[in-house]
Design a protein that fits this description.
Elements: H1 5-30, H2 45-52, E1 60-62, H3 68-74, H4 78-85, H5 119-133, E2 139-144, H6 151-163, E3 167-173, E4 176-177, E5 180-181, H7 182-185, H8 193-198, E6 202-207, H9 211-228, E7 232-237, H10 257-264, H11 267-278, H12 283-306
Parallel strand pairs: 1-2, 2-3, 3-7, 6-7
Antiparallel strand pairs: 4-5
Helix pairs in contact: 1-2, 1-3, 1-11, 1-12, 2-3, 2-9, 4-12, 5-6
Length: about 325
């Protein structure tokens, strides 16, 4: 597959933004400034970006409780996201959603939620709308190895296959459903993709810690779905660098496990090594992007700290949709 320099730089910047956004949140949450639960996406950057780099604003995605990476990869405003997480009225959802409920329907980000497996039925509904519009667009449900065990996911996959709609089920297998390892909880020899195949849809598998592997598999998958209006699935083998939630003591992980994963399966390290040796990107260019992203995150945090807070007088706003 041919890659453009601009495309690779854009992909790296988005992965670097996800990483620095999450690592900065890890620091800020420890200071007690951010309300509510937060589930960090660091480690899975290549999965979100490898998928979303193929999409435009008319393609739709539904996210999960671990959704910051999906939001950034789809193009959500980082400043608005940070304000939302800080609980500001200036946030993307006016401070009503917080970390687990960020949405921006103007760019096809239909939202995240705290219910494991809840995104799959929503994506099928969006896929029905996409098929009716007849523009070759798709709807994607991101979920993990935990959601693959939920009845909602099975029902959604079956419905998508029966009514033949362009729904894509992206399973990011980071090997932990909250605190439970997939070797214990997934009864299909650690192969989630085969579950989708049982419903009669095609399924792909890729290394979710490698941007190129994910990007190329998604290119093939999307060509198939856009041309047929049929559903499909992909399983991305990836890793989670932090706990299930901020404050998780992670006693279920082996000693040194996270350090090993950061050394051996870091999506940004892998991208940098491949980009410098196999393409025409330079270390200096990537370093400059890292620095620029750092400054962007600094500005976002400072703006979020100073942003307007919700007022009780606003509590009845946006309760019902206005048509």
């Amino acid at each position: 597959m041919q890659y453009s320099k601009d495309g690779l730089l854009r992909a790296y910047r988005r992965m670097a933004t996800i990483r620095q956004f999450e690592e900065r949140l890890h620091e800020e949450i420890a200071k007690g400034e951010i309300p509510g639960f937060t589930h960090l996406y660091a480690g899975q950057e290549a999965a979100a970006v490898g998928v979303c780099e193929h999409l435009d604003s008319d393609d739709m995605i539904v996210s999960t409780h671990r959704g910051h990476g999906h939001c950034i990869a789809k193009g959500c405003d980082v400043d608005g996201m940070m304000k939302e997480i800080y609980g500001s009225r200036e946030g993307l959802c006016k401070g009503r959603g917080g970390s687990m409920h960020i949405a921006d329907t103007s760019i096809g980000m239909l939202g995240a939620n705290g219910i494991v497996g809840a995104g799959a039925p929503q994506a099928v509904g969006a896929a029905i709308a996409a098929k009716a519009a007849g523009k070759g667009k798709v709807a994607i449900a991101f979920s993990g190895d935990g959601a693959c065990n939920q009845g909602t996911t099975f029902e959604a996959m079956n419905m998508a296959a029966v009514i033949k709609v362009p729904a894509i089920f992206v399973f990011e297998n980071n090997h932990y459903s909250e605190h439970t390892g997939d070797a214990y909880a997934v009864g299909t020899a650690l192969d989630i993709a085969s579950r989708a195949e049982a419903f009669g849809m095609r399924a792909w598998r890729a290394n979710g810690c490698d941007f190129y592997s994910t990007f190329e598999a998604m290119a093939e998958l999307l060509d198939y779905v856009r041309s047929t209006n049929l559903p499909a699935a992909i399983e991305l083998d990836t890793e989670r660098f932090y706990g299930h939630f901020e404050g998780d003591p992670q006693r279920y992980r082996a000693k040194g496990e996270v350090a090993r994963l950061r050394e051996e399966r870091d999506a940004l390290k892998s991208f940098r090594a491949s980009a410098v040796t196999k393409t025409y990107l330079s270390t200096d260019e990537l370093d400059a992007l890292d620095a620029a992203v750092g400054e962007e995150i600094d500005r976002a945090v400072e703006a979020a700290r100073k942003a307007e807070r919700p007022d009780p007088s606003h509590v009845l706003e946006d309760v019902y949709a206005s048509y």
